[in-house]
Specification:
The structure is a homodimer. Chain A has helices spanning 138-152, 165-176, 195-210, 227-241, 244-250, 270-285, 288-300, 311-314, 335-347, 371-388, and strands spanning 20-26, 32-33, 39-40, 43-50, 60-64, 90-91, 96-97, 102-106, 121-122, 127-128, 159-163, 183-187, 321-327, 351-357. By secondary structure, chain A is α/β, with parallel strands linked by helices. Chain A has a single domain, classed as Rossmann fold (3-Layer(aba) Sandwich). In chain A, the strands form four sheets. An eight-stranded mixed β-sheet of chain A has the order 1-4-8-5-11-12-13-14, sandwiched between helices. Chain A has a two-stranded antiparallel ribbon with strand order 2-3. The first copy, chain A, is globular, with a radius of gyration of 21 Å. Chains A and B meet through helix 3, helix 4, helix 5, helix 6 and helix 7 of A and helix 3, helix 4, helix 5, helix 6 and helix 7 of B. Chains A, B: It catalyses: L-homoserine + acetyl-CoA = O-acetyl-L-homoserine + CoA. Chains A, B: Belongs to the AB hydrolase superfamily. MetX family.
């Protein structure tokens, strides 16, 4: 187990290859079947890999990203120039050690960073898909990932891991392709989207669709961008990613101008300025229609629905090893939802461990420097890797 | 103590006069001083009364309304035609028994149902105030209420009571006019607006200001209404008024069309349809600029600010009797905030009782049929009324 804090890991001495970004064109012979009954194809999948696939092809970890994530686990991000979203976890010497594992992350179907989605051109019209893009599901996203693994010649994943919507994909993987997933780590997730979360998503969608620049979804063809609506959607969602204690700790009622309030509608409070910044920077990197389609996929997610509401049946006979992780201050995907997944896994006689990490960082803790979370993760992965006979990462010569 | 469930109270046999609606023009000789340093006047205050003021003028209860409330405790509401917002609590034979008390509720300063606010005409321009209206505070709202009481010849309130922003006004009353408030009942409130609540308010304001029909605040002069932005603001806020368990109980993942989802962006889930309805009906009765000004007043509210952050000092020497009430599932104004108020009152040696009502109804429980809350309220008021020598309400002859 690597106890080095990730941010201080021996990045400069990484023996494995750095991250590489790729695209694959899939479904060239026949289109992909969608849960809606429709078909889509060929499709493009943009993905990033880091590390080296071993000869047995047994060390692959699939990282599933969240709603507004992408495949840039490692940066620089092509739009923002910033570090990747999971650099703190994935890399040589880090929790998911790319000297030991071959790590893959693909931009989800419906995304806007290279994988087929509403921003891409519909070959039938020569115009961006927009609202003409088929409504997709978490199942469809995972089906596209399975096709990518076929393309890469990887039959079985050592592990599928992800937080938030990534956790939904991880659970979907375990249910749809149980024989292809040795271990599954759903973090801060659920087996179905709750009424409150559907409500928050709906508010975001209404904010986007209320923006005249959204233009019925045709803004790209018309050279417009629904910036204001998308920013409001992001600001609302962003509040749900944090916890009240974290907001209080970070901002409290601190003013932008310590001498006093302005008696106006400028950003008097630091928390207002922070939110506005979150909204403004988000619209530069994300597509409004992608936001609609991906939130809809989350809303539709319900693993128990096909089993008369009995979640345990979805996992019947599974051989996958599960490590379910939640965060104590996460009110978007509260621990109770992870517990329900664990109960169902127990009822299905699955091998499952469960950790609720105590933190005030809220839902976004899976993206942050949260040592107890990282320890849980590396403990689980290292134990599993030893059992699977994966050679340890090379010793740090220092 | 009246144990009759309010909804079944002997309304038809009410001995006291029914509710009457009034307006008063105040500050005709000199304008009202505002916390911003500005002045405003004359001002109009719209208010409703029910019951009869006794000869000693000692039985007056001031009801303070919440963000989107108004003075129509009793309906019919002039815009919606619906019952008043607190009919379940206020009326003959009800918890706040108008056969015993003279009950007053005024539309807050900055409101949009008759009291001076951004929708009213600015006499200096002959146009609606719009953003030219001065930014007001909870202190200003309460100052206007005090002027109204002067106008009515009421020196001391038997009780000031209100939920949410109403609780802010109640606490402000107790701090600004301690000698004029015999009892104070702040329900589901706080002594200052939290970072998370400022954040939610800011999202609502941004949604309104992002609507092109808001038109820099001048929509009224231009014959427009920022319906979409105001609806998004309302939908976001509405989620915060409920609890996750209540949303789950009421809606869960129930579909509008039980045969399945539409694979589209119509309201597939009942919770979406409910939210859209909340947004659409709100914009018919509320003014977007009022929403901006009133949320701003809430954000600015911090009773401890003038006392170096030590809330107890704000209550030093108070003789007011307090009954602080919170709801266990309220995450907008969680019990912890009421507890902090109670701690400060204890530290100031005030007489205070505190009840956390166990309910899954969330913040909005103060508006709903919540028997444990109503029992708490009538118990406190009846005890106080006996002590004060107010004659009991006439016996029900049946």
């Amino acid at each position: 187990m690597n106890d080095t804090p990730p941010a201080q890991g021996p990045l400069g001495r990484a023996p494995g290859p750095g991250p590489t970004n790729h695209t694959a064109t899939l479904c060239t012979r026949e289109p992909m079947r969608l849960d809606s009954g429709g078909e889509l194809g060929p499709i493009t999948v943009a993905y990033q890999t880091q590390g080296v696939l071993n000869a047995e092809r047994s060390n692959a970890i699939l990282v599933c990203h969240a709603l507004t994530g992408d495949h840039y686990m490692q940066g620089p991000h092509p739009v923002t120039g910033k570090p990747g979203w999971w650099e703190i976890v994935v890399g040589p010497g880090r929790v998911i050690d790319t000297r030991r594992y071959f790590v893959i992350c693909s931009n989800v179907l419906g995304g806007c960073l290279g994988t087929t989605g509403p921003r891409e051109i519909n070959p039938a019209t020569g115009q961006p898909w927009g609202l003409g893009f088929p409504v997709i599901t978490i199942g469809d996203m995972v089906r596209a990932q399975a096709l990518l693994l076929d393309h890469l010649g990887i039959d079985t994943l050592f592990c599928a891991i992800g937080g938030s919507m990534g956790a939904m994909q991880v659970l979907q993987w375990a249910v749809a392709y149980p024989e292809r997933v040795r271990a599954a780590v759903p973090i801060a997730g659920s087996w179905r989207h709750s009424a409150q979360n559907i409500a928050f998503n709906e508010v975001g969608r209404q904010a986007i669709m209320a923006d005249p620049d959204w233009s019925g979804g045709d803004y790209l063809s018309e050279g417009r961008v629904p910036r204001r609506g998308l920013a409001v959607a992001r600001m609302t969602a962003h509040i749900t990613y944090l916890s009240e204690p974290a907001l209080h700790r970070k901002f409290g009622r601190k003013l932008q101008n310590p001498t006093g309030v302005s008696y106006g509608f400028d950003a008097d409070f630091q928390v207002e300025s922070y939110l506005r910044h979150q909204g403004a920077s988000f619209v530069k990197r994300f597509d409004a229609n992608s936001y609609l389609f991906i939130t809809r996929a989350m809303d539709y997610f319900d693993l128990a629905a096909a089993h008369d509401g009995v979640l345990a049946r979805a996992f019947q006979g599974t051989k996958t090893r599960f490590c379910v992780i939640s965060f104590s201050s996460d009110w978007l995907f509260p621990t109770a939802e992870s517990r329900a997944v664990v109960r169902a896994l127990n009822a299905a006689a699955a091998r499952v461990s469960f950790v609720e990490v105590t933190t005030d960082k809220g839902h976004d803790a899976f993206l942050l420097d949260e040592p107890a979370f990282h320890d849980t993760l590396s403990g689980f992965l290292n134990g599993l890797a030893e059992q699977a006979g994966l050679p340890p990462a090379p010793e740090d010569p220092s």
